[in-house]
Amino acid sequence: MDTIVTPGLVLKETRYKESDRIITLLTPGLGVISASAQSSLRLKSKLFSACGLFCYSEFVLVPGRNMYTVREADVKNVFHGISSSVEGMSLAMYMAEMASALSPTGDEAAKELRLLLNCFYMISEKKADLRVIKAVFELRTMSECGFLPQLVYCRDCGTYDGPAFYLDPAEGCLLCESCAQKAGKKCNLDAGALFALRHICLVEDKKIFGFRISVGSLAKLSTAAEQYALTHLDKPLKSYAFLRSVLP
């Protein structure tokens, strides 16, 4: 039977029987898929590490009727630092579940994989505030999966800059302070949060974390990013409640 060779990031693992796992993978070409990794829980198995949660590996897959079967797997990167804190682990689980729920395909899947690998690296190596990583992921992943908000100017009057703006989480548009007041909306972004919002959604991949933000602006950005992402998901995330309990 023909095999498929692809890199993949393990988003979820489900144990069954004594030593087997069913893993959910995000791949650049196939999108989000399920695969059976037989005997992968045995310490001597060559699949043990490569099929672990949040592990990025090169997989040799055999297509099946309902899912793939992992024939071989070689580790490319293990983000050991993620599990060093409850906050980091819960954020990674939240991001993985969101990626799985969106289930991107084609070019979107390849972009989502790069984004997740970047964010997992930032968590593992403690390169940024977890709230920054969370906001970056939420805004960028929604933008790359077809929900890019209109970020250039106020929808009603065309204003580009100002001390406060409102990001409508449902419509994905901006209202300046004056137009938001007329519409009965309370502004949820200040100038710093608006700058970061535009940067995250529009900049090239390698510069996505290349911005600075104050504590006050980050609080506003975090709230707006979360509301925007969760509004556009068609189902609730099981990991969300626990994440909020450890990373308020």
TrEMBL record:
The residues covered by the DNA replication/recombination mediator RecO N-terminal domain are 1-78
Signal sequence annotation: none
List cellular component terms (GO): bacterial nucleoid
For this UniProt record, the keywords arranged alphabetically read as follows: DNA damage, DNA recombination, DNA repair
Is this entry keyworded Phosphoprotein? no
One GO biological-process annotation of the entry reads:
DNA recombination
Key word DNA damage present in the record?
Answer: yes
Q: Which Pfam families match?
A: RecO_C (PF02565), RecO_N (PF11967)
Functional note = Involved in DNA repair and RecF pathway recombination.
Sorted alphabetically, which NCBIfam families does this protein's record hold? reco
Q: Which family does it belong to?
A: Belongs to the RecO family.
What is the official name of this protein in its record? DNA repair protein RecO
Q: From which source organism is this entry?
A: Faecalibacterium prausnitzii
